[in-house]
Amino acid sequence: MAAARRPRVTSTDVARASGFSRQLVGFVLNNTPGQSIPETTRAKVLRAAEELGYVPHGPAQALRRGRGRTVLLAIPDLPQGGTMGDMLEVLADELATEGFTLVTYLLGAEHRSPKDVAAALAPVAVVGMVPFTESEIATFTASGAALVLPQPGTRFGSNLEEVMQLLGEMQVDYLSGRGHRRIAFAVPGDIRSASLSAGRYEGARRAAERRGLPPVKRYVVPSEGAADVVRVWRSGRHPITAVACHGDEVAFAVLAAARAAGLRVPEDLAVMGADELSIARYAEPPLTTISIDGRSSGVILARTLVDLLADRTPPPFDLHDGITLVPRASA
């Protein structure tokens, strides 16, 4: 009987054994230039690697010898929350263990065009939170990028638009499942959130259509003036009974306005948020929302990048990965 194959020792195992971060261990194992690492630290990492039987990963090492090591991540000019911060931290760390350096580029907020940035950095891969245009893809490829994500027609990459639509669908599906038929969609007044709100609203609209509900209307809820919007929802012959909010911040404003109007939540008006801020559980009543695991997304994206650059097929990716509905008392 053949012996069971021993799992490959990874740089993460070396980091755990040596007590140093995965990023630092990656610098030592890959002999990354420009890093000021004490010789005692370097020796401890290499000793742990030897004791564990660490062997550099062949495809990744070949990539590093033949191509650049910079991965360019283009981020839309959007309000940055904890989810995005978690994703960026893990993505940078995971890529560093494979010898790559992550550089972020804020679209629309930089003085330099994507073409100039790509020409200066010559990234081996370019990743967008939303799909690039054909012209942008051609520019990145001409600058030497071997990979541009998202790839049209595939599940490879981080397509923010699809994730946003999924969140809106989940909200309406949940509220409809709780018996609500007249649902409003609340968006913030911040113009930078417009693209995200558009995607979430589109998902909500489609879910309502699929379930045979009355059309979901979109309402702007300013941070000062939510009470006026709540009054509109509750007026007329067919008042709104549930609100799907773009994010938890909007939901907090709606909850406060509902209390001020003497409404019971969720009996008179059910309220649902998204993105699960840490204080959502302490709202009055506790806020039903959707949690997005940014750290999980960072790991998946990093593995997808490394696998595709090494001409391997990444593991299957499901948009639902890391996205969890959190039911509480508000809806």
UniProtKB/TrEMBL annotation:
The organism's place on the tree of life at top rank: Bacteria
CDD domains assigned: HTH_LacI, PBP1_LacI_sugar_binding-like
SUPFAM superfamilies reported for this sequence: lambda repressor-like DNA-binding domains, Periplasmic binding protein-like I
Upper classification of the organism: Bacteria, Bacillati, Actinomycetota, Actinomycetes, Cryptosporangiales
Keyword tags: DNA-binding, Transcription, Transcription regulation
Pfam name, any one: Peripla_BP_3
A Gene Ontology molecular function term of the record: DNA-binding transcription factor activity
Keyword Cell cycle: no
Identification of the protein by name: Transcriptional regulator, LacI family
Boundaries of every HTH lacI-type domain copy: 9-65
Matching InterPro entries: HTH_LacI, LacI/GalR-like_sensor, Lambda_DNA-bd_dom_sf, Peripla_BP_I
Gene3D superfamilies, alphabetized: 3.40.50.2300, lambda repressor-like DNA-binding domains
Record organism: Cryptosporangium aurantiacum
